[in-house]
Amino acid sequence: MEYSTPPEGDTETKTRARRRRWPLALLPAAVALELAASASPPLVERLYSQALYRVVSAAFAASFGRVPFSLGEALLWTGFGGAAAWTFRRLRQLVRARGRRRLVLVSTLADAWAAAGGLYLAFVILWGLNYRRPPYAALAGLDARPATVAELTAVCERLISETNHARDGLPEDAAGVARLADGRPGALRRASAGYGEAARIEPVLAGARAPAKPVIVSTVLSYLGISGIFSPFTGEANVNMTLPDPDVPFAACHELAHARGFAREDEANYVGYLACTRHPDSDFRYSGLLAASVYAMNELARVDRAGHLRLDAHRAPGVRRDLAALLAWAERYRGPAERVSQAVNNAYLKTQGQKEGVRSYGRMVDLLIAEERARPTPVR
Fold first, then answer.
1. What is the mean pLDDT of residues 292-302?
2. Half-sphere exposure (CA, 13 Å, Cβ side) for 349?
3. Do 275 and 194 contact (CB within 8 A), yes or no?
4. What is the rounded CA–CA span in Å between residue 124 and residue 232?
5. Whether 346 contacts 357, CB under 8 Å
6. Which of 23, 65, 165, 299 keeps 20 to 30 A from 147, CA to CA?
7. 8 A C-beta contact, residue 24 and residue 116
8. What is the mean pLDDT of residues 159-178?
9. Looking at residues 153-180, what average pLDDT do you find?
């Protein structure tokens, strides 16, 4: 792509140059669209999240949802391979372009800018504007004011009790860890069932039904510390298949929450928990409660260590074995790749308005407490 100024009077050359320059406006256009959307979240909700995105997600579900493997994963690796090949070719041109290196370098940077702009604009239109919709608490009418330690403790007590109860009767493997009766692939096929009941309670959770899909190169995700990934370009929820069985249902429902248009990580955690706890199958209800209890207890440990230790002692033996399996999985894959991945993810989340970065994953506790406030007061 040439960007040198054409000779004066060469109309055809000028026209070609203008045509080559317009892609450079794609990235500024995407940023401008996001800034405009940020100014009016209710308008984004009405015109995009509840209108245009519903059409997009339904089209994705009706087409890509029927494919048994993840097209998004195939697209991702194809994109990486294409980008690597393109970079290698441009570097070779740069080395060989004696006397023209500046022109080749400018052209290369312009092409990269244009490609990044096209990709980012597609991301924003196909899914990314969901970051600019109103918070879930506002959509569901929840009171998400700052919580007291007493409120957090009450939520932890309830979640531990319900987790212990949900663990009873679940099948186990030889190590005594909860097992999915139909395996991880079967759980992915069942994952969307909880959203039907959840949408009856909260209509904002309604959306096209599509299965979660397994990630073929799950080991790579494991070393990156990623339990799942949502593809905004195909609308597919993809789940790491090396996860211990107790975590798979929640991971699947978390990614499906993104497919329903809940982009923020804290909200996807909470929506995933809702879908799990409304699921007709006990293994999903347990997985959602277990994940919620971990997030809530981690927050309690930060503000009240003694209270955390007191409540943690009430976890059932089976729950303890499951938590140990989750910890062993995390330790097995921990390393420099995970730290780099976390740093990249942290930066990405902050660009999308989540100022706390990866810490926003734990803010689902605010929504758990808001849910607790909305529960009817027991009659005595």
1. 92
2. 18
3. yes
4. 9
5. yes
6. 165
7. no
8. 97
9. 96
Q: Which of 151-160, 246-255, 322-331, 348-357 has the lowest mean pLDDT?
A: 348-357
What mean pLDDT do residues 190-216 have?
A: 92
User: Does the pLDDT value for residue 286 go beyond 90?
Assistant: yes
| Dist CA 135 CA 125 (whole Å) | 19
Residues in a beta bridge with 239: 214, 228
Per residue in 40-93, pLDDT tens? 999 999 999 999 999 999 999 999 998 999 999 999 999 999 999 999 998 888
From the list 253, 134, 122, 118, the residue with the least C-alpha distance to 196 is 253
Phi and psi, residue 85, nearest 5°: -65, -45
Cα 316 to Cα 170: distance, rounded to the nearest angstrom: 13
Tell me what the mean pLDDT of segment 196-220 comes to: 92
For residues 267, 270, 272 and 276, what is the CA-based torsion angle, rounded to 10 degrees?
-170
Q: What is the DSSP letter of 268?
A: H
Question: Which residue type occupies 345?
Answer: N
Q: Are 53 and 129 in contact (CB under 8 A)?
A: yes
Token pair 């993809």 is at which residue? Answer: 238
The first and second tokens of residue 125, run together, are: 């239109």
Side chain identity, residue 333: Y
Model pLDDT, residue 14: 45
DSSP code string of 82-99: HHHHHHHHHHHHHHH-TT
Written as six digits, the tokens of 6 are 């054409």
Burial classification of residue 9, based on how many CB atoms lie within 10 Å of its CB (0-12 exposed, 13-18 middle, 19 or more buried): exposed
User: Could you tell me the end-to-end alpha-carbon distance of the chain, in angstroms, rounded to an integer?
Assistant: 76
